[in-house]
Write a structure and sequence with these properties.
Number of helices: 9
Strand order of the largest sheet: 1-2-6-3
CATH class: Alpha Beta
Number of domains: 1
CATH topology: Rossmann fold
Shape: elongated
Strand content: 15-25%
């Protein structure tokens, strides 16, 4: 990063560490530039994974993303004692991340939404081609709403997101 050592009170990475070829180096840059605190929002593969999309529709894409995730047990070079907090995804989340539309499945049918989600953008059309047809069929038939009726009244979903906070 084009910042001097210890030049910021805090440094933060939001859902990006798992997109780096060397996550430790990226977190090292956060540590180098921050004087007081480093915050990393990431997700733990396989923990609290109650989000329906990766498990049901493009499992090949979810497997690809899981190979790049930084586990909470290995917080990518953060010092020992980093605090770990669960971060629920609100039902009206607008950030465009993979889990943002968990209660609004029709959004995943929009090519612009899929293009903005690295999981979909990086796995290619051949993996996605079978995926969007099923959600479309499930939505038009009412099958999705019947299977996910319990989600519709919820205000947030725990989908594996974790906030790692290291005080330096």
């Amino acid at each position: 990063m084009p910042l001097a050592d210890d030049s910021a009170d805090a440094a933060m990475a939001l859902l990006t560490v798992h997109h780096r070829s060397d996550p430790e180096a990226g977190v090292g840059e956060l540590m180098r530039t921050a004087r007081q605190r480093v915050v990393v929002l990431t997700f733990g593969p396989g923990i609290d994974h109650r989000f329906w999309l990766p498990a049901e529709y493009p499992p090949e894409a979810a497997a690809f993303d899981g190979t790049r995730a930084v586990t909470v047990e290995r917080p990518a070079g953060l010092p020992g004692g980093a605090r770990v907090e669960t971060v629920p995804v609100p039902h009206d989340c607008a950030d465009g991340s993979l889990a943002a539309f968990w209660q609004r499945p029709e959004a995943y049918l929009d090519p612009a939404v899929r293009a903005g989600v690295p999981l979909f953008a990086q796995t290619g059309d051949e993996v996605l081609r079978p995926g969007p047809a099923r959600p479309s069929d499930d939505l038009s038939s009412g099958r999705w709403h019947r299977r996910r009726a319990g989600l519709l009244g919820r205000t947030a979903l725990v989908a594996g997101h974790r906030l790692l906070v290291a005080d330096l």
